Amino acid sequence: MKKINSIEQYQSQYEKSVENPESFWAEKAENFNWIKKWDKVLEWEFNTPKIEWFIGGQLNITENCLDRHLESRGNQTAILWEPNDPTEQAIEITYNELHNRVCSFANVLKRNGAKKGDRICLYMPMTPELAIATLACARIGAIHSVVFAGFSARSLEDRIKDATCNIIVTADGGYRGAKTIELKTIVDKALETCPSIKKSIVLKRTGGEVNMKTGRDVWLHEELNQVDNICPAEKMNSEDELFVLYTSGSTGKPKGVVHTCGGYMVYAEYSFRNVFQYQEGDIYWCTADIGWITGHTYIVYGPLLAGATTVMFEGVPTYPDAGRFWEICDKHNVNLFYTAPTAIRALQARGNQFVNPYSLSSLRVLGSVGEPINEEAWHWYNDKIGKGNCPIVDTWWQTETGGIMISPLAGITALKPSYATLPLPGIQPCLVDSDGNEIEGNDVQGNLCIKFPWPSMIRTTYGDHDRCKQVYFSTYKGKYFTGDGCRRDEDGYYRITGRVDDVINVSGHRFGTAEIEAAIDEHENVVETAVVGFPHDIKGQGIYAYAICHSQPTDMDTFIKEVNKTVIEFIGPIAKPDKILIVSGLPKTRSGKIMRRILRKIAEGDVSNLGDTSTLLDPSVVEEIKTSAGLG
Ligand code: PRX
Fold first, then answer.
1. Which residue has a Cα nearest atom 26 of ligand 1?
2. Which of 11, 406, 433, 474 has its Cβ near the most Cβ atoms within 10 Å?
3. 149/236 same-domain check
């Protein structure tokens, strides 16, 4: 597929995509193998909402990721896997091998009862088998639900139940830096209350002791001995579900964002190729975990659709030391590198001595995703890692958008630190004020919405279409609401300012404040909690919890440890609060709503202007909290 190669071409493509979206996207879709071509490109309305792309078309995304490339690049590396332990051998899997392994895995799934339309949960470490399992589901038309392997048994259980998965694929354990995570034990706990799961397929990774339940649990390597590697791709309609991926919102439990086969495929490839300006032969590395949307679209689907070599890393940026990323870049001659601001800030904080030993001369493009990148981190990334030679693509998007929405095209769009810059062709962002009026012109700020569909947008929230409508399409009629605040500057460049709802972004991971509050409330001494985000040097946002207790804890350290344990049990270690303050009351309005604005200010340590507190039921609470926080 040809890619955009100048700013003039970007502009003309953008105009074309707005004037005639259907012919624009039809042209992009022509580049794929369709079992049956579509009858109609698009039907939509944002009230129900109903969004359908490439209607009547039939395809299998794995034929486009794998089979389509075999003739031209069968022996090229598709996945280059770097293990957690740098002394363990890296593994190169060619397109031919990947095709065979996906087909074999698909046959293992079938042998264990999987059928088209089933939901299959993947709870795995970042080994090649996770990418293979993902593709194997897609091969047979099963819907994958990848759950990040850092989530707790409770979170896993909730996700399995919500999607009524009938199979889970997991591992005995996983390595993350110096730690070994006992995944199978976590799965066993979750499955105690998940009767829908009939089979658990277990990868042997660590060799640790595990319980295998007869009739339910099988070893992957034994199963693979029982199957061949021939598995025709299931014929899927464009709008058949490809995957569900859980993400947090302002209220309730995490919801399953549903993406479908045709549109997602077209947009994943198009955005990958254009944003990173992928060139044939490039080595591309995205450091995300496949448990998040970034891993789905830009480790697995986008790069493989484009026929790239995609690097998969099992470990963490600081193991064995803070030079690991840069060591891997040199070792594998990485050309395109995509990571998160939180990792950049953490590595910057460890000092340049971890970067200096490496040449980093293969790098051509750097990417950033997941949260706003502050200017200091941007400049360090640009100067120390990119040596001033690599454009940084600050990519704004969401689980719900499926692919990158606002971003520079590497080397084409003029950059401005901390700006995601311009929308990709086909993306029509707009800013709205609190009354829902669109704010025209430049040098303005508002809530970010998208007013026209794009191929990889969310179709529904699993099992609850009304929730999808309420969360994304009801705040501003006729528009998709992102939940983000945004500025459009005098050049028409977009800068994301952060969430405007009760979602906090901790190290690029999304949590609803309500979700963390519910977890903390499980502690027996806690009556009620209010959680807010506050600026954090490394994580972007930290978690600040205000807790009302039945009785004042005798030992604060023990109390904090216990609360952390509760949060780890209900969500996972990534949601542990950074600060816990015991308070006697919370600032509530007469209707019982917590005024988080005030709590955010106190968490920031800025109590100079707390705004209007006259609507509070008991304004004196604020003084008390200020005093407890040492700001009185
Ligand atoms: O607030 C925005 C922030 O991350 C949110 C989406 O989170 P999630 O669905 O987990 O997906 C993360 C990876 C795509 C957004 O609503 N966000 C993501 N990228 C950026 C960002 N904020 C600022 N700049 C970005 N580049």
1. 396
2. 406
3. yes
The answer to whether residues 222 and 283 belong to one domain is yes
What is the distance in A from the centroid of ligand 1 to the CA of 371?
5
Neighbours of 358 (CB within 10 A): 16
Tell me the residue type at 304: L
* Residue 579 near residue 606, CB atoms below 8 Å: no
CA nearest ligand 1 atom 10, residue: 510
CA 363 – ligand 1 centroid, Å: 24
In the block, which residue shows the tokens 């996972």? 572
512 lies in the same domain as 447: no
**pLDDT single digits (tens) 241-297:** 999 999 999 888 999 999 999 999 999 999 999 999 999 999 999 999 999 999 999
Amino acid identity of residue 169, one-letter, is V
Residue 450 CA, ligand 1 centroid: distance in Å:
15
Boundary (domain end) residue, out of 486, 517, 550: 486
The tens digit of pLDDT for each residue in 417-438 reads 999 999 999 999 999 998 999 9
Extended beta strands in 387-464, E state: 392-395, 429-432, 438-439, 444-450, 460-461
CA nearest neighbour of 444 among 455, 429, 459, 433:
433
Domain that holds residue 543: 507-628
Q: Exposure of 630 by Cβ count < 10 A (0-12 exposed, 13-18 middle, 19+ buried)?
A: exposed
Q: Are 555 and 593 in contact (CB under 8 A)?
A: no
Same domain, 11 and 101: yes
* DSSP conformational letter for 476: T
State how far the Cα of 4 lies from the Cα of 310, in Å rounded to an integer: 22
> Is the entire prediction scored with pTM above 0.90?
yes
- The reply to whether 237 falls in a domain is yes
384, 449, 493 from 443: Cα distances, Å: 32, 17, 9
How many angstroms does the Cα of residue 187 sit away from the middle of ligand 1? 29
Give the three-class secondary structure for 422.
Answer: coil
pLDDT, tens digit, 9 for 90 and up, residues 486-532:
999 999 999 999 999 999 999 999 999 999 999 999 999 999 999 99
DSSP string, 151-189: S-HHHHHHHHHHTT-SEEEEES-EEETTEEE-HHHHHHH
CATH number, domain containing residue 473: 3.40.50.12780
What is the total residue count of the chain? 632
Is 364 a member of any domain? no
Assess whether 482 and 514 both reside in one domain.
no
Give the residues surrounding ligand 1 with Cβ less than 6 Å away. 247, 293-294, 369-372, 394-399, 420, 482-484, 496, 499, 505, 510
Number of domains in the chain: 2
158 phi and psi angles, rounded to 5 deg? -60, -45
346, part of any domain: no
Instruction: Give exposure, 65-85, as e/b (b: 16+ Cβ within 10 Å).
Output: bbbbbeeebeebbbbbbbbbe
Q: Are residues 549 and 442 in the same domain?
A: no
Q: How far apart are the first and last CA of the chain?
A: 62
What pLDDT is stored for residue 632 in this prediction?
75
Rounded Cα distance between 431 and 500, Å, is: 13
Given 432, 451, 486, which residue is the final one in a domain?
Answer: 486
Q: Which of 409, 430, 545, 527 is nearest to 484 (CA)?
A: 430
* 247 and 254 Cβ atoms separated by less than 8 Å: yes
